[in-house]
Amino acid sequence: MHMADALLSPAVGGVMWATTAATIAFCARKTQRDLDDRKVPLMGVLGAFIFAAQMINFTIPATGSSGHLGGGMILAILLGPYAALLVIASVLTVQALFFADGGLLALGCNIFNLGVFPCFIAYPLIYKPVAGDGSSPKRLAFGATLAAIVSLQLGALGVVLETVASGISALPLGDFLAAMLPIHFAIGLVEGLVTTAVISFVWKARPEILAYSAVSRPLGNLSIAKVLVGLGLAAIVTGGALSWFASSFPDGLEWSMAKTSGQEELEAPHQGIHHLLAGIQEKTAFLPDYAFQSNEPQASAPEASAPSWPAVDAGTTTSGLVGGGLTLFLAVAVGFLLRRRTQFR
Amino acid sequence: MANIESAFVDLGILDALAARDSIVHRLDPRVKVLTAAVFVLCVVSFDKYVIAAMLPFALFLSLILGLAGIPARFVLKRLVLVAPFAVLLGLFNPFFDRQILLHLGPVAVSGGWLSFLSILLRFGLTVGAMLTLIAVTGFNGVCMAMEKMGMPKIFAVQLLLLYRYIFVLADEGQRMHRARALRSFDGRGTGITTYGHLIGGLLLRTLDRAQRIHLAMLCRGFDGTIRTSRPPRLVARDVLLFALSCLLLIAMRRYDCSLLLGQFLTGLVP
What we know:
The complex is a heterodimer. Chain A is mostly helical.
């Protein structure tokens, strides 16, 4: 469920990056303030623990498939929201840089989806009130499971909104949601069960660890959670609105020029392409009756601007193919030449 | 994360590559991080149907890899490992976007297929850029650069410590995995209960390790900051090369170089 750079538009990616950077700065200040410097190595090693735990699989009952720990809720429970967010962010950074899981620009989105939701929504608003001080195993199990489900649902929702707002993938919002939410409900349920299993093991073996983390971070910070939620929603909405303009038209500037002169909207229907394409789409569409596709203004926006794309002209196409092929050839050739040189040196 | 074990083996290779010496390696890490960021931004800001105009960026990557003496095989192998993910992401486009945008002789190509190819290319370029960055800079270099550019210090320390202990704990995880696999017949003992106990045990040992590490760090005078032995210094050459590569990247973003080259070549043949 890590997002990749390939599906992001700069507007969405940038907004999420800024939001995440602000959140990290805020959490860093918070963590540094109650710096118990025992926590510095603890955070680092717990991050590495998540990697280690992900190397061990378990079979999911009744399905035969296997899963592994995600770890967001466990970190939040052990470290409290601020330090946990830093640890999750660092884990995601390493995954992005070394395992190509995610991307540089997508890092903002990923940290937001997988870090902010468990740390600042699921943990303070669900786990803490339900599980209480953790002394009742049933409440702890229920709280951890519910929190994991909610945070994964929110994360999946975030992925869908960010992807659709970016407009690179052609998946309609409804279909994407219908695919993502049930899958992540199942994943969340499993994650919750695993979190419960691990936390209750720790509770039986070394209760003082959980007692320490439950006591030292009182729930006095609800207002901050609300602020962050508001900020995040604002970011999603702004990013979505920005990228809507950025992605469904060739260029923001061209779009605004066309808009002010009214050119594109006036000309497109006269050329007949619009009607033809609409007919084709009607016949061949994947789900013709689907509400999102029959939505006229949305569907017609890319079609209307289609004639202005350079790719349609045949001569340009040939030149593009020739030039593109040659560039690719050059890329490979440069690689080979330089490699030869470095080997001989 | 199926490839996680082989990926950990590769971590060592990455470190070895980052420790090499070349004109690219000698650049200030900040320059490299910023160039990578500009690169990724340029690539993702292309319209969703663009393919040819993105290819010069592959040329840029290829040039950097060549100058740094990083074997292209290394980057390509990783790309192939994660490619199924990109294919899965992009494969919906041909289904949902059936508008014909391009005619290649008798074959009509729909927008969906164009954007699918575009997604694959974006994926290759952005992931390639990231792997190249880490292979020519090293993780410590990237962290240092980010810290110099304003990343909170505690987060930098967190990243460095995490990276240091991944190797230790990954070994431990792998050992536990192997031990359980050797003792489990017919898939017994691979369920959630055993898993919870295994991971719980690992967690407890991790916490103990954290305490030992903290004591050891205190013995060596740890005061909450990690110092680096050679602070990076920005020299004129770094700034110049950064400006040059930025200019190049933005020019490649602004002008469709493939198209220009193609027009030039097809213009030669009357």
